[in-house]
C-alpha cells in the first residue's frame, strides 16, 4: 500500500538568490528526506500551487531530485520517495593521525576509485599562496582527482603542494593510494595539524558531468590545510562533494585522549 504525502506548506516565502527552481529543489529535498521511502508525492498542480511556481520550474526541481536519487518516477503511478543508492562518510580524522579520503574509506571496506584529471606545476594563485605561506606565482604542484566509491562518483578534489619542497608529487601516480601517505613515505612529512573549512557551492557544467548530477546542484565544499608541528603548511586541498551520497565527519581529541 502506498504512503501519501500530507503537507501544510504555503509557498516559498522570500525572494531567493539564483534560479527559483534551485530553491524549490532544495526545499523539496529536505521534505522528502524526512518522509518514508515509497511515499507518493502530490500531483504537479498541487505542488505548483504550494510553491507558487510554474510546471516548468517544478519539473526542473523534481528532475534534479530524480537524477540525485531522492525521487523515482513510475509510469502511470506517479513520483515516489526513494533513497540514494549509496551513502558514505567523507571523513577528515585527526584524533590519532591525519587520514584522508582514501585511507578512511578503504578502512571502512569501500572500493575507492581515483581518476587523475590533471597533474602539473603551476604558479600559485593568490588564495593558494596564502594558504601555503608562499609568494604569489611561486610554483606549486596541482593534482586534480575524481574520486568514486563502489563505482559511483563522489567528489572532485584539487590538491596543492609547494613544488620546491615536494617535487616528486609532480610525477607520482596518484591513481592509487593516499596523498597523505605519499608525503609520509617519500618525505617523512609530519602531518600534525589540519584546519578544515566547510562551505556550500553549486556544480558547474564540467563538475556536473563528472559527478553525474544536474548543473547547478548543491555541492559540499571542504577546504583543508595540513601543517607540520612547527606550523609550516604542507598541502592545501579543496574537495567538491555530492551531498546526497556524502557526509563530512570531524573527530576532535581533547587532552590527548
TrEMBL record:
Organism domain of life: Bacteria
Record SUPFAM superfamilies: Chorismate lyase-like (SSF64288), Winged helix' DNA-binding domain (SSF46785)
Every HTH gntR-type domain range: 18-84
UniProtKB keywords: DNA-binding, Transcription, Transcription regulation
GO molecular function terms noted in the UniProt entry: DNA binding; DNA-binding transcription factor activity
UniProt key word Transcription: yes
Gene Ontology biological process terms, A to Z: negative regulation of DNA-templated transcription
SMART domains: HTH_GNTR, UTRA
PANTHER family: MANNOSYL-D-GLYCERATE TRANSPORT/METABOLISM SYSTEM REPRESSOR MNGR-RELATED, MANNOSYL-D-GLYCERATE TRANSPORT_METABOLISM SYSTEM REPRESSOR MNGR-RELATED
Annotated protein name in UniProt: GntR family transcriptional regulator
Amino acid at each position: 500500500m502506498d504512503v501519501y504525502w500530507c503537507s501544510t506548506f504555503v509557498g516559498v516565502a522570500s525572494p531567493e538568490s539564483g534560479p527559483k527552481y534551485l530553491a524549490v529543489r532544495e526545499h523539496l529535498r529536505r521534505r522528502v528526506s524526512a518522509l518514508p521511502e515509497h511515499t507518493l508525492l502530490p500531483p504537479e498542480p498541487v505542488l505548483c500551487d504550494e510553491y507558487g511556481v510554474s510546471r516548468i520550474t517544478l519539473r526542473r526541481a523534481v528532475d534534479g531530485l530524480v537524477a540525485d536519487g531522492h525521487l523515482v518516477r513510475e509510469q502511470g503511478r506517479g513520483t515516489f520517495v526513494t533513497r540514494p543508492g549509496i551513502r558514505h562518510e567523507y571523513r577528515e580524522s585527526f584524533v590519532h593521525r591525519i587520514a584522508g579520503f582514501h585511507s578512511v574509506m578503504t578502512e571502512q571496506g569501500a572500493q575507492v576509485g581515483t581518476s587523475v584529471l590533471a597533474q602539473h606545476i603551476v604558479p600559485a594563485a593568490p588564495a593558494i599562496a596564502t594558504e601555503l605561506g608562499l609568494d604569489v606565482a611561486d610554483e606549486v604542484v596541482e593534482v586534480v582527482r575524481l574520486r568514486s566509491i563502489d563505482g559511483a562518483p563522489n567528489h572532485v578534489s584539487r590538491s596543492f603542494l609547494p613544488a620546491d619542497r615536494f617535487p616528486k608529487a609532480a610525477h607520482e601516480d596518484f591513481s592509487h593510494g593516499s596523498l597523505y601517505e605519499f608525503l609520509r613515505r617519500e618525505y617523512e612529512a609530519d602531518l600534525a595539524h589540519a584546519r578544515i573549512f566547510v562551505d556550500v557551492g553549486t556544480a558547474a557544467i564540467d563538475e556536473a558531468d563528472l559527478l553525474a548530477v544536474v548543473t547547478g546542484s548543491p555541492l559540499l565544499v571542504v577546504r583543508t590545510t595540513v601543517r607540520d608541528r612547527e606550523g609550516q603548511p604542507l598541502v592545501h586541498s579543496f574537495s567538491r562533494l555530492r551531498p546526497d551520497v556524502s557526509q563530512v565527519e570531524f573527530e576532535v581529541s581533547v587532552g590527548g585522549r
